[in-house]
Amino acid sequence: MSAAVLRLSFFFGILCVLGVVERAWPRHAAPPDRLRRWRVNLGLGVIDVVCVRLLMPWLAVDAAMWVEQRQWGLLHMVPFPPIARGVLAFVALDFVIYAQHRLMHRIPILWRLHRVHHTDVVLDTSTGVRFHPLETLASLGIKMGAIALIGATPAIVIVFEIALNAFSLLTHANIGLPVRVDRAARLLIVTPDMHRIHHSIRREEHDTNFAFHLSCWDRLCRSYTAQPRASQATMPLGLTRFRDAAAQRLFSLLRQPFER
User: For residue 31, is pLDDT > 70?
Assistant: First the structure.
C-alpha cells in the first residue's frame, strides 16, 4: 500500500468515527449549520490537496527518500539505534510544527494565511482541514526543509504525516474527555479541550496552546493555558472579524488573506 493511500485510509476512517461521536455527544453548543460548514471546510481541504499535487514536485516522503539516499541530516552523523533515531526524528519534527504554528501567529503575512483556519466560528473535526492552500504549501516547504536538516527516514515521515492528520481531526473535534482522563492525557498529548482554548475569541487565549501532538512544547515554551475564562461548552470561538455568513463561504475564505 502506498503512503498516499495509507494516509487517505486513516484520514477518512478517523473523520467518519469522530463525525459520528461529536454528533452524538457534542462538547460545545455549536449552532446547527453542520452540513454547510462541512461542505466549505472539506472543500477547502480538497483544494489544498489539488494545489499540493499540481504545484509541488515533491511531497514530504519524497524529500525523506532523497535525504536517505544521500545520508543527509543531523541524525546520520551519530550511529543511533533505529528506534532511538525514529523517536528523535518524530519529536524534532513535532517541535518544528509547534514553532511554525507559533510563527504563524506572530508574523503578519503568515497570520493572514493562518487566520482562515481561525475564522471558523464553530469548532469540530472538519476544522482540522480548514487551511488556506498557500498556508498548506508553505507548511510543506518548511516540513521538507526540517526533514533534510534532521535526516528523518521515509518510514518515520509516513508515521508523522499520519499522526499529523489524525491529531488535526481529533484535537478540533467537538468532543470532550472525562476531566480526569483529559488531565492525565495532557501530560503527554494535546486533547480537544486543550486545543479548543487556542480557538477562543479572546486574543490572550488563542495565542496559546500551539502544540499539535506533544503538549510539552507549550509548557516548556510558556505558551500553555490550562482552562479558558468561559466554560468549554459555551466559550465564543473564532475571531471578532469575518463572523457573518458571507465571510464563511468557500471563495471568501480563498480571497480572505488578500483583503486589507
Answer: no
The pLDDT of residue 184 is 96
Taken in order 142, 119, 98, 61, is the CA torsion positive or negative? negative
Q: Whole-prediction pTM value?
A: 0.93
The answer for residues whose C-beta is within 8 angstroms of residue 163's C-beta and 6 or more apart is: 90, 213
Q: Give the separation between CA 158 and CA 69, rounded to whole angstroms.
A: 17
High-pLDDT (> 90) share of the chain, %: 77
Instruction: State the CB neighbour count (10 A cutoff) for residue 84.
Output: 11
- Concatenating the DSSP letter of every residue in the chain gives --HHHHHHHHHHHHHHHHHHHHHHS-SS---S-HHHHHHHHHHHHHHHHHHHHHH-S--HHHHHHHHHHHT-SGGGTTT--HHHHHHHHHHHHHHHHHHHHHHHHHSHHHHHHHHHHHT-SS-SGGGGG---HHHHHHHHHHHHHHHHHHT--HHHHHHHHHHHHHHHHHHHSS----HHHHHHHTTTB--HHHHHHHTBSSHHHHTS---SSBTHHHHHTT---SS-SS-TTT--BS-SSS-STGGGSHHHHHHGGG--
How many whole angstroms from its chain centre is CA 254? 18
Amino acid present at 134: L
Closest listed residue to residue 176, CA positions, set 190, 191, 165: 191
Better pLDDT: 61 or 91 = 91
Q: Would you say 210 and 98 are in contact if contact means Cβ atoms under 8 Å apart?
A: yes
**What pLDDT band is residue 99 in, cutting at 50, 70 and 90?**
very high
